[in-house]
Design a protein that fits this description.
With about 130 residues, the protein is an all-alpha fold. The protein has seven helices and no strands. About 75% of the residues lie in helices and about 0% in strands.
C-alpha cells in the first residue's frame, strides 16, 4: 500500500473518531460565546461556526455520509484555531470538557481534513470564516 493511501486511511480513521466530538465542540463554542476574554469579532466567527454546523445549508450536505460531516468539523476547527491565534490557549483549554488536548486535536483535524476536502471547498470554507 502506498504512503498516500496509508496516510489517507489514517486520516479517515482519525476523522471518524473526531466526528464523535462534535457535541463537545459545540459546547465549547457555546461557552466561548459567553466568555468575556473572547473579543466580539471572534464571537461572531464562533457564532458563524455554530450556525454552519446546525443549519442544513452546507458546502457538502450532511446527508452524504462521512464527507457531509467533515466540512462541519473542519469549519469548527478553523474557527477555533483562529480564536487560538487571537487569544491565549488557556481560553480554549478552560472551556473544553472533551477528551485530550483541544489545541492538538484542532490542529490534527485541520491537517486530516485536507485529505478529503477538495481545495475549492477548503477555499470556500475559509472565505466563509473570513467574511464573518
Amino acid at each position: 500500500m502506498s504512503r498516500t493511501r496509508v496516510d489517507k486511511a489514517k486520516a479517515k480513521k482519525f476523522l471518524k473518531n473526531a466526528l464523535q466530538l462534535i457535541p463537545s465542540l459545540l459546547r465549547l463554542l457555546y461557552r466561548l460565546l459567553r466568555d468575556d476574554r473572547v473579543s466580539p469579532g471572534d464571537k461572531l466567527i464562533v457564532a458563524a461556526a455554530i450556525a454552519y454546523v446546525l443549519l442544513p445549508f452546507d458546502v457538502i450536505p450532511d446527508f452524504i455520509p462521512f464527507f457531509g460531516q467533515v466540512d462541519d468539523i473542519y469549519v469548527v476547527a478553523l474557527a477555533l484555531l483562529r480564536l487560538l491565534h487571537h487569544s491565549d490557549e488557556s481560553v480554549l483549554r478552560e472551556n473544553w470538557d472533551g477528551p485530550g488536548d483541544i489545541v492538538k486535536l484542532l490542529e490534527q483535524v485541520r491537517r486530516m481534513a485536507l485529505f478529503f476536502l477538495p481545495r475549492r471547498v477548503q477555499e470556500i470554507l475559509l472565505g466563509v470564516l473570513r467574511h464573518h
